[in-house]
Write a structure and sequence with these properties.
144 residues; 5 helices; two-stranded parallel sheet; single chain; mainly alpha
Length: 144
């Protein structure tokens, strides 16, 4: 499971569809509707929010908005209603780590998109995240 801190506009079609599915699973986990993935480290940042269901719903809304811009038919009804505002923190180090990780994926999976994005030094974060100074998050499973 990878719940990107990056804005979903950077993902290729395969990545955006996977993110939608994985985030729907994360929503089910946070709602206590599934046994799998309950201890996944990427869910910690949503659990640390005072309103985790709202936070995951806002995250899903951002993915849905991007999908809609691309003409995809993601089902908006799968997102829990949003009644309050919520935001999460992401560190600059985490965002940079994810950016490098995504570029590596795109280089082999979608070279055209890789060439489009490779010159960006500081990518945008998903709209739910506030970017702060800091290193890679402790919950991140780093690749060697």
């Amino acid at each position: 499971m990878r719940l990107w801190s990056l804005h979903p506009k950077y993902l290729d079609a395969q990545g955006l569809v996977a993110l939608w599915r994985e985030t729907l699973l994360a929503q089910a986990v946070l709602r206590g509707e599934t046994r799998g993935y309950r201890n996944h480290p990427q869910l910690d940042r949503f659990r640390s929010c005072s309103t985790p269901i709202t936070a995951i719903s806002l995250y899903l809304k951002g993915i849905h908005d991007e999908a809609k811009l691309r003409g995809y038919a993601f089902d908006r009804r799968k997102i829990r209603p949003i009644r309050t505002a919520a935001s999460l923190i992401v560190t600059e180090g985490q965002l940079a780590y994810e950016w490098e990780h995504l570029l590596m994926k795109l280089e082999s999976r979608n070279p055209k998109l890789y060439r489009k994005w490779r010159r960006i030094d500081v990518p945008e974060a998903h709209s739910i995240f506030l970017v702060r100074a800091g290193e890679v998050e402790p919950w991140e499973r780093r690749r060697e």
